[in-house]
Specification:
Chain A is of the alpha/beta class. In chain A, 35% of the residues lie in helices and 25% in strands. Chain A has 2 domains: 183 residues, Thiolase/Chalcone synthase (Peroxisomal Thiolase, Chain A, domain 1), CATH 3.40.47.10; 142 residues, Thiolase/Chalcone synthase (Peroxisomal Thiolase, Chain A, domain 1). In chain A, a hairpin with an 8-residue loop joins strand 9 and strand 10. The radius of gyration of chain A is 18 Å and the shape is globular. The N and C termini of chain A lie far apart (51 Å). Chain B has a 5-stranded antiparallel β-sheet with strand order 5-4-3-6-7. A two-stranded antiparallel sheet of chain B has the order 1-2. The chains are: A alpha/beta, B mainly beta.
Chain lengths: 344, 114
């Protein structure tokens, strides 16, 4: 999919909460020892949720973009604080935006990339000048479930605007693939999701990501070696490495955006935070491939080209690397209190 | 509670106040306050108000913003040894009150030490 008029990213911001739960802590409590597939995961504080983390990342993105007005705000998440009451209107209020379209989008872990696609259409058709796409989650994992090693918290936000000299990256093309695949789900009013273990791999993650990326290659004529960086959704450390290899990408191309070992799976924010980490160090002219995955299931693949204005964005917002470095370790009992699994 | 809060939500969400940068007078119109400042004084609560029991010990500080305005706010995500007079602090947005499992969630500013 390509917009009629060129569209770009004018600003971005990420937010990674302060607390880290080592996977050895989950293993200690539920397995008697050992560790999970990742080293640590980012855990939201007791007073943080999807709203607060969305606002933090959005403030950074707006500051970098240097714009005053948004025509649309989309929050992509599966962990809304309210079942009925939009997250996006609270974000809009905090940003001082009122004459704007605001909506919450849900598609498991790929709700943010579909927000980018919708905004590309709205901006590319001239309906709005600027829009904000946010990916954010406080991911849930049932105590003792494999998900608990990686289900993490974080957010990333992107200001999508008409392409001009201030764009830090152009959105060149996107391609999607969806099917009805029940690999992971959470029924209404259920607290924790369920999943089909190994079924989440081959017929779900790998099948859909490969389809969307190969579709993007076909539509653009690009090949893996044309990209300096590639970022894949990262439910665990292994899946993105394997899908990258299957598609012909090298370990060097995915290294910068592969954050699961350090912060876990931030669901709708997972590949977007990876993209933010890549933009933190990318140079003008670099091409970036981004491929999300959402259970249920689908994948959106993008091609971005970094622009000269990226250099002006340096230092405006904290880098992903700096936010990861600031983390402090907590134990399992503190984690259960912070995530509301243990209440007074 | 929710309606009272609704009237002044911009003050909490955006750290808006009505102090004049030039003369210190309090104007009627709210405007955005600087989001950074320094701790003037601080204390720690072990018997907090109802609704804050899960956040004990609760760190509170008076923070002087860059324009001289002062705010009383909670300090979060900061190691205890870094909470000291003169420390640089930055505003963040957090849950301030949660009305049980079915009521509304009120958001507002708190501070972290840089």
């Amino acid at each position: 999919m390509k917009s009629k008029e060129r569209v770009g990213i004018k600003g971005y911001g990420a937010y990674i909460p302060f607390q880290r739960l080592p996977s050895t802590e989950v293993a200690r409590v539920w397995k008697g020892g050992g560790s999970g597939p990742n080293l640590e995961k980012a855990v939201a504080s007791i007073d943080e949720d999807t709203v607060t983390m969305a606002i933090e990342a959005s403030q950074y993105a707006m500051k970098m973009a240097g714009i005053e007005e948004l025509g649309a705000i989309f929050v992509g998440t599966e962990s809304k604080p309210y079942a009925v009451k939009p997250t996006s209107t609270i974000v809009a209020q905090a940003l001082g935006q009122h004459y704007t379209l605001a909506a919450d989008l849900e598609f498991a872990c790929k709700a943010a990339t579909e927000a980018v696609q919708v905004l590309t259409g709205l901006v590319g058709s001239g309906m709005i000048q600027n829009g904000l796409a946010i990916g954010v989650d406080t991911a849930q994992g049932r105590p003792g479930d494999e998900l608990e090693y990686t289900a993490a918290s974080g957010s990333a936000a992107f200001v999508i605007s008409k392409f001009d000299k201030d764009a830090i990256a152009s959105i060149d093309c996107s391609a999607s693939y969806v099917s009805d695949t029940g690999d992971f789900w959470r029924r209404a009013q259920e607290r924790y999701p369920r999943h089909l273990s190994r079924f989440t791999g081959e017929p779900a993650y790998f099948y859909h990501v490969e389809k969307s990326v190969r579709n993007l290659f076909q539509e653009t004529g690009l090949k893996p070696s044309d990209f300096t960086y590639a970022v894949f959704h990262q439910p665990n450390p292994r899946f993105p490495v394997e899908v990258a290899a299957r598609l012909g990408f090298t370990a060097g191309q995915i290294k910068t955006g592969l954050l699961n070992p350090l912060i876990g799976n931030t669901y709708a924010a997972s590949s977007p935070i990876g993209l933010a980490a890549v933009l933190d160090e990318a140079k003008p002219g670099n091409k970036i491939l981004l491929a999300s995955f959402g259970s249920g299931a689908g994948s959106d693949a993008f091609s971005f080209t970094v622009q000269d204005a990226i250099e002006k964005s340096r230092g405006v917002s904290p880098t992903v690397k700096s936010m990861i470095a600031k983390g402090t370790k907590i134990d399992y009992s503190t984690y259960t209190k912070f995530r509301g699994k243990l209440t007074k | 509670m929710a309606i009272q809060f609704w009237r002044i939500r911009d003050r909490y969400y955006r750290l808006m106040g009505n102090r004049c940068d030039d003369c210190g007078a309090r104007n009627l119109a709210d405007k955005d306050m600087p989001r950074t400042g320094k701790i003037l004084t601080h204390t720690q609560l072990h018997e907090p108000l109802p609704g804050f029991e899960s956040e004990v010990p609760l760190n509170l500080a008076v923070i002087e913003l860059q324009n001289g305005a002062r705010v009383l706010a909670q300090i979060v995500d900061t190691p205890q040894e870094k909470i000291e007079t003169g420390a640089k602090a930055r505003a963040v947005i957090r849950r301030v009150r949660v009305d049980g499992d079915s009521g509304q969630i009120l958001y507002g500013y708190k501070f972290v030490v840089e």
